[in-house]
Amino acid sequence: MTSPRLATSTAHGRMYARVEGGELEVPSITTVIGQQATDLGGWHGYMAAKAALEDQRAYRASSSSGLKYAIIRDAAAASERYRDAAAARGDRVHNYAENVALRAMGQPHQVEEMRELLLSHGEQAYADRFDEWWELWKPKPLATEVTIWNSTVGYAGTLDLVAEIAGHTCVIDYKTKGTDRNGRVKPLDEKVVMQLVAGVKAEECLVDPVAGDWEPWQHSNAPILMGIALGETQVVPQQANPAVLEKNWYKFCALKRVWDYNRALGEETEDSLMPVVPPPVQ
């Protein structure tokens, strides 16, 4: 599943509880990483300009102020529409990948249903490329969509796949990516290394969300952390460089402290700014 049962969206980002319906205690891995500022101003501007230029109503806008503002409003929301559509596509691709792993583990699955869902959206190429990667690399899944928890730092998350490949335990994160003009899958963001190292640094993994049962995390020594870019034309796996894992872990912990302070400030009842008056006349 792409929406973990213990996770809930809040004003402070996605947060996790220890048991279904329980108190939300810690932020998700991606929420913590999201504390790092990312400048998307250029991309938002490009998407808005592109939407306005391609709007078929544009040629009539000069004679109608109402239509002009409607086009501006729709163009301004173009990046959000693209983001939401990409997220929905990513969910469908992740669901397919999860069910392929469940089938390989001998568990109940909906592989055909998930493939049909992709087909209905014209996205079957993602499933085809994923199947090719699965056949070539032959992973032996140990766990899929596993929820993990770290009490020491204070975060939780859900890992896409833990699998044995060529005798080595691998912690794997899938990223659904678009295709560039040369037909190549777009590259992974380096932030995936933080996501992977936070996952392998877990202390517990979920056994039963209803009962709130957890067990010690068994894969903290996994030697390979792998991000996999899933596209329509190819699948590109990349390993996190062991030489940079420690620094990425320290950076993640620092971002968690930023999240803690931001949450504390957000819950502060006192005003951050106070009025002042001129000094008395001498």
From TrEMBL:
<protein>
    <recommendedName>
        <fullName>Cytochrome</fullName>
    </recommendedName>
</protein>
